[in-house]
Amino acid sequence: MKLFLAAIASSCILSVPFSAIAQDCPPEETHIVKDNETLSFILIKSRLLPLYGREGYIDYISKINNLSNPNLIYPSSNLVLKSRCSAEVQSISDVKSAKKPVAPQLPKIEQQVSEPALVATPDSHASVINESAQLKYQFYAGIGAGASTLAFSQSDNTNLAVGSFSSTFNPVLHLTLGLDFAELWNVELNYSQLKSKVSPPSSLTVNSKDYILQNFAGVVRYTFLQAGSMRYRSRLGLESNQLPYLAAGTVTDVDVLTPTLSQIDFGFEGLLQSNEKLSWLFVGRVLPLLGSTVSPGNFTAKMGFPFALSARGIYQITENFRAFTEAEYRSQDIKYTYEKAANSSDGKLSISAAELRLQAEYLF
Q1: Which residue has the higher pLDDT, 164 or 286?
Q2: Is the peptide bond before 259 cis (omega within 30 degrees of 0)?
Q3: CA 67 → CA 50, 51, 62, 71, 78, distances in Å?
Q4: Are 79 and 60 in contact (CB under 8 A)?
Q5: Would you state the pLDDT for residue 250?
Q6: Whole-angstrom Cα distance, residue 297 to residue 295?
Q7: What residues contact residue 21 under an 8 Å CB cut-off, 6+ apart?
Q8: Is the predicted pLDDT of residue 165 greater than 60, yes or no?
Q9: Angle, nearest 10°, between helix axes 105-114 and 84-92?
Q10: Rounded to whole angstroms, how far apart are CA atoms 287 and 129?
Q11: Residue 339 and residue 83: Cα distance in Å, rounded?
Q12: What is the pLDDT of residue 196?
């Protein structure tokens, strides 16, 4: 009788088809990497969790796909995705080769087969994204140089003749320090310095004047939409700009002053990735005026509405180095009041500038 029961149990085990066993586990899939995707993002989207730890899927999937660096995957490449239970079910199928299965083993086999793959609830999904975001960050620093053409016109009620002042081929220095994190946020600090020479109109019998303009800027960017190879980012920042202003006691005595203007930076950026090495960045922004200071004297500027447009071509040289060329055009009109001693003057300052620069950045 015992032999008869064992034979029935054996035939039941061997009659369970492998497809029925495997149906509770996600099948093996091939994922084509899209632009700007990371391995952690793909695994979260595919619900292959957890990402890290002894049972983490980042190491597991990297091993399956022979990835030497899980942080470096390329668009259009194929990734094999499968949960760990696929391997377990495969080992269960080897039970067909067992010669003497016994009935008590049946509940154990059913428990292994019916155990569902790990599925993230909406809450746990969000927490995993936040946990991953804290671990995903990258510092970068850069230095760049370029040339700028600057033109400005000034009119006020002083005895300085109304006219246009221009300076061309100004050397420009740029320093950048930034941080990317969570693949959504970016914080960046910038400093630039422009050294130029004022060339007054020929109607004024004064010599050209040298001056240095400086710009400090901090900006925060947020990626609010990603569609295919395009990524759209909003930006909000604060700038401190020095702008040229000419004050004159006589037509033979002209002082070049540099009012420091505080401005808010509102803007939008569109990042287009052509391939794994080359991408393009298009930026449009406005800089409403907040306040100003100047020394000597008191320079009070009224609300202005300047804008800037720029385009940048970025080339990823290696994993840690990138270089880009950027062209920018900027225009600004300012109404002001300048007080010095007992004298006061009202006027308007119009400025336009174009800049071309080359910059290299290192990613830590």
Answers
A1: 286
A2: no
A3: 18, 15, 5, 9, 11
A4: no
A5: 55
A6: 5
A7: 89, 92, 93, 113
A8: yes
A9: 150
A10: 34
A11: 73
A12: 81
- Candidates 348, 351, 301; CA nearest to 329 is 351
Per-residue pLDDT reduced to its tens digit, 99-127: 445 445 444 444 444 444 444 333 333 33
DSSP-derived secondary structure for 1-30: -HHHHHHHHHHHHHHS-HHHHHTTSPPPEE
Residues 6+ apart with CB under 8 A from 4: none
Locate 188 and state its tokens: 């960046």
> What's the distance, CA 22 to chain centroid?
42
263's CB contacts (< 8 A; 6+ apart) are 238, 239, 240, 241, 287, 288, 289, 290, 306
The whole-chain average pLDDT of the chain stands at: 76
Angle between helices 2-15 and 105-114 (to 10 degrees): 20
Of the segments 36-50, 131-145, 227-241, which one has the largest average pLDDT value? Answer: 227-241
Look at residue 317 in the predicted model and tell me its pLDDT: 94
Mean pLDDT to the nearest integer, 184-196: 93
